[in-house]
Write a structure and sequence with these properties.
The chain has 18 helices and no strands. With about 350 residues, the chain is mainly alpha-helical.
């Protein structure tokens, strides 16, 4: 890799584990299929807390002491009570041990990001967990415990999201008929069962806005109100694509960048290139944890020169500043170059220029 190498001491050998793991039978899946949305919500959280996280963390706590990131992160997970509300960013995105553990793992052994996915599930954040799952599954080595849990979770989330979509569509039908009050009732009920749905929260906002217009209360549809709602939506899915007016040219550019996610992964031969583009879009939206994970993949599976710098840049934004010492390079220079490059891309964008007029 141009101008940058791994620190030999830390990364001279990578962690191998879980190979040849037996298939895990999800004995509760039949009950899960019969459950309503609220039941599925609770069963997914229980699956993460009682089954997945204890097993995944156990594989981390037994590793050799030289894999300090894996051992420390596994110990943290094992000692955390996920029945209580937990700060997911503190446990993962802002945690140096999480990223060190990610780097210490054997290629295709996705034990660490799969653990993050189940931490998200334990806290009811299925939307964001699915975004991670969609990417992690590309690289996950078969016949490992991590991959077996991932397969079962994917099956569960497909069933959950199909049911969720069916419920939301009922609200959309009422909205399209102009029955905004009925639509609001439907979305409110959905959110009682799954409060962290970015889609349901957006549709509720949209129907409420239309009802405000209908009742002559347009003044309630302010940018300030949207800012509050937007924060809630993006807290559950920071990659959610919304078709809303922007308050300024920078936000218009970010909306445009979000929309480009739907153009990715249409050609299976461009997987790595699209993951790099996805990471770059996430970085523009300041979703640095997701961007970092994807840049780590592109730096590991390709020769894209900027991947490792952008990975470390994202860690810097997350407050993880100590790991770059394990690499060689002029990071102050490279990080400034990334800032200039991203600013230039935005200023040259037709969307940004048209909004600035």
């Amino acid at each position: 890799m141009k101008n940058i190498t791994f620190c030999i001491l830390l990364f001279s050998s990578m962690l191998f584990s879980q190979n040849g793991a037996p298939v895990i039978k999800d004995v509760s899946l039949e009950d899960y299929k019969k459950a309503d949305l609220k039941g599925k919500f609770e069963m997914n959280k229980s699956f993460a807390i009682k089954e997945a996280l204890p097993v995944l963390s156990s594989y981390q706590t037994i590793v050799d002491e030289k894999f300090a990131g894996v051992k420390n992160f596994g110990t943290l997970v094992a000692n955390t009570n996920f029945n209580n509300n937990q700060d997911i960013n503190k446990l993962t995105a802002n945690n140096s041990d999480y990223w060190r553990a990610t780097m210490e793992m054997e290629q295709s052994n996705e034990l660490i990001p799969v653990t993050k996915i189940f931490i998200l599930i334990s806290q009811g954040e299925f939307d964001y967990a699915l975004k991670y799952l969609e990417i992690v599954q590309f690289f996950s080595k078969r016949e490992t415990y991590a991959d077996n849990f991932l397969i079962h979770l994917k099956e569960r989330l497909i069933l959950f999201n199909n049911q969720l979509a069916s419920e939301i569509q009922k609200g959309i039908v009422e909205h399209d008929k102009g029955e905004f009050e009925k639509a609001i009732e439907i979305y409110t009920e959905i959110l009682k069962n799954y409060p962290n749905s970015a889609w349901a929260n957006f549709e509720l906002f949209y129907s409420q806005s239309e009802l405000n217009n209908k009742l002559g209360n347009k003044h309630l549809n302010s940018f300030e109100n949207w800012e509050k709602i937007k924060g809630n939506i993006f807290s559950h899915n920071p990659l959610y694509n919304v078709n809303m007016s922007a308050k300024d040219a920078r936000e218009a550019y970010q909306h445009y960048r979000r929309s480009l996610i739907d153009t990715l992964f249409r050609n299976k031969d461009n997987k790595i290139e699209d993951i790099y583009k996805y990471a770059d879009i996430a970085m523009d939206m300041e979703v640095y944890d997701f961007a970092a994970q994807l840049f780590w993949y592109t730096s590991s599976y390709s020769k894209i020169d900027k991947s490792i710098y952008k990975y470390l840049y994202c860690l810097e934004k997350l407050g993880v500043t100590d790991l770059k010492k394990n690499f060689k390079g002029n990071f102050e220079k490279e990080f400034k170059a990334i800032d200039r490059e991203k600013e230039k891309e935005m200023l040259k964008s037709d969307v940004y220029k048209s909004y600035s007029k």
